Amino acid sequence: MNAIEKSLPDSSLSSRVQALELTAEGVNLLDQTALPLSVSYILIRTAQEMADAIETMLVRGAPAIGIAGAYGVVLSARAYFATDLSLDEMTEKIRQDARMLAQTRPTAVNLFWALAEMEKVLQSPVSIPAELLDRLTEKARQIHQEDINACLSIGKHGAAVVPQGAGILTHCNAGALATGGYGTALGVVRSAFAQDATIQVFADETRPRLQGARLTTWELVEDGIPVTLVTDNMSGSLMQAKKVDVVVVGADRITANGDTANKIGTYNLALIAHAHGVPFYVAAPLSTIDITMETGDLIPIEERSSDEISTVNGELLCAKGVNFFNPAFDVTPAKYIAGIITEKGIARPPYQESLAKLFSDK
Ligand code: MRU
Fold this sequence. Notes:
The chain has 362 residues and is α/β, with parallel strands linked by helices. It is 40% helix and 17% strand.
């Protein structure tokens, strides 16, 4: 992997922030582990490098890792296209790389959804390796573009739930950095801000990886949207002080009944919002909805290294010899969710019916 410094790309989106880009050389990933101190892009050249980048969270956020997975398959196809493998041999090698990409992070369903879309291309009739590479490239670019379009629609639908001059609280980073562009929860923020510059945005810092402090504040500042940073344990106090009118978060996987896995701490936030009568919304594209999974207790929850909670900047912050529990996500039961904002509109309870309808209308 090569680090290359580059200024933020101009974009036709209403966000200057772009997390990933497929080029002739490979995939440029904005290194999210380095933000906000350094804005640097890393050139990913192989499927293995892409798998490592997903696992180490150089790229993160459910839709973004789906797109990264699809681009990882393209990198695989490029590598095998350059050899003298037959079409069948090339297809099998690409499948092996797709399985490796699937081993990286278990919770966000977008990764598996995107890899399944790429598998459909592998199964489609093609006659020569060049055609297979073209089709895979076209499909991955389409997945990326459709995610951007979905975020723009989510923003439009979601802005309607944000009252004039509202305080909006969000958790983790569900922004341009976490998607193809524009963002889901932050797409709602961007669209609401475009209509009403008096809204107040609050970002939870999001222990332990600090996606709220490092990434959400950075991307909102980049786009000129004022944001107030709070620590995770301040949301109750903020709501008591009546500063929050609506909570909007992203999602990693939503099951058929509306239960939602998102960054650890989301469930706490939903309970506090419920206690204060503050509406709690989830913003996510249909690619985040796992309509085949019935309930949230079936969602595989990633556990990450204890280093994430035992140290800050490499310095130990607890006694040696303690035990750790570090789940990266939690599941918010559907009963605490006022609505699920998708590109097709806002699904309301009962989700079993409203989500199924979104899929049958597709
Ligand atoms: O561990 P991360 O940073 O990948 O977790 C990200 C989140 O939980 C986001 O809220 C979610 O993926 C939605 S991104 C639009």
